[in-house]
Amino acid sequence: MKWREAWPGLAVSATVAVAATFLSLHYKASAMLFALLLGMALNFLAEEGRCLPGIQMASTVVLRTGVALLGLRITFSQVQALGWGTIGLIVASVALSRTMIVSLSFVPVTVSSPETVAVSRRRASIGSRSNGESPQDDVEP
How many domains would you assign to the chain? Predict the structure, then answer.
């Protein structure tokens, strides 16, 4: 997704977040409650149009990142204190590891001989017996 397409929706999401924070400070209620109410009022923006890609990004990538950081109890100031070099190194490491996982997951698996298949079928049928199921067919092809 291009950032140019996402900006209107991200701006709407940021506006809702800032407005919810402002309302929660002035009316002594939960910011989450105000964010939900404002989100319900602006729900029509998420159905179609220019704001859709950015709202989808905010509701997936941004939200998941925020929940993960909140779960780890890491604040933005703590991340910023690491410095941009360290942050870049972490992002590059994660990207490299994900790339390696994806590239290695497409390595084809070859069966060396028909005996390997027969042993695998035998183990599968023994496993099904331990679950109380009847064995499929123990006769080798």
Answer: 1
